[in-house]
Amino acid sequence: MKGTTMDNWEYLVAAYSIIWIAIAGYVFTLSRKQKRLWREIESLKARMRGKGED
Amino acid sequence: MKESAGKVLAITRKDILSEMRTKEIVTSIVAFALLVIVVVSLALDPSERTSAVAAGVLWIAFTFAGVLGLGRSFVMEKDKGCLQGLMLCPVDRAVIYFGKMLSTVIFMLVVEAIILPVFVILLDQPRFPPHLVLITVLATVGFAAVGTLFSALSVNTKAREVMLPLLFLPVASPVIIAAIEASGLALAGGPWSEILPWLGVMVAFDVIFLAVSPLVFEFVLEE
Amino acid sequence: MQILKNNVLSTNALFALMFVTMTAALFLVFVYVPTEASMGIVQRIFYFHVPLAWVAFIAFGIVFIGSILYLRSSNRKWDRLAHSSAEIGMVFTSLVLITGPIWAKPVWGVWWTWDARLTTTLLLWFIYHGYLLVGSFASDESQGARYSAVVGIIGFVDVPIVALSIVLWGTQHPEPVMSEPGGLTGAMLLTLMVSLAAFTLLFAYLLIHRVSLALAADELKRLRQFADERDYDG
Q: Any chain B CB within 8 A of the CB of C111?
């Protein structure tokens, strides 16, 4: 075991970076799913409107 | 209760009779288990054939042979259209579960009874401890308890050959660990008192999953 | 629309609370808490590693409860809850498995140690990987939901036996244990607790969003089918 405190900070940085990159990545996939959902809702709305005017 | 037991045995009997006609499950799985032992042994130096390593080899063979056998158990029913017939039977789903589980246990025990002495010779073990018999029975019941459920489940999914091991192996890991450790101790000539905690793990696993699996089995066969 | 607005408001409040707690946790971990004597700076991974593991376990507990409720009621929303929780639990479990080795390497000189907790976490990862796989490999949606629920129940029932067998196994094959620093001092305990609160809030926030996304997708699918049928009739 190493007693000094300055020799392994890069492991700490790596661990924290990975945690936040992974969580950001997950949130990103969620937001993409949400965007796709919005697009579908818009297209459905347009379809319904087109139908209604006939 | 007595009536249900009769129906369970009827399903088991059906499986055993059809197996006795073809013998295809037992013979193919025995050959497969032997091949696993041979292939793994090739990776071992003669000096490494200690009791602990031999126990590992044995349970690798039994585990993968078990997965293969479990897979067959429902694949054959499904391919022959028997699963539909079985589901139309006016019996409780738990009866089908216990019937299939029992036949799986019997097939696997036959396979293991053939493999065990061959294993002791091939891996040049000094003794054949009687403990191995009890360990094998407890582990086999545990394998079949969860395996029957997952086998019925994966047979209805896409990529069923992959699905079964991916579901079965992590869930059965306590039995695999306990069987390897207990067999290693037994092959090394350890006393019962050392083996007992591992037998306890397997008994706990068997009891819990024999109680829980039939409860959820009906949702697997529901169509 | 009103429901949607209320939902947005409450998740905004949750987000604010989560943000404040997470910032506090970061401050405590990087600035406030004293460096642990024997392991050095890298021990600070502990304050994120352990809460991630605990929250992942809560997530799998929710999968278990959601699975039971789904099988009892056949109400799709319970499946959506269980599935969403499993997905986030897998993200957290993966992070536990990644940060574990990063912690182990500088302290014990090995990337992986077959320590009881890490090994149990690894097996948990495989069990819930199976859970998510069953849902996507099923032949139709209701079958997928039923099958995943079965795996969600069996998997969670299995956890204590897995843990028991691994602990028993570990006592016979001693490995370096991912020890929590012996006797948490007040400052360390406070940091751990704040971090645990922060990750619990993060989980709750992600879960609410994931579930509402899944429910919205279901609703949209229903509407689309409805529209298709109407177009067909017209």
A: no
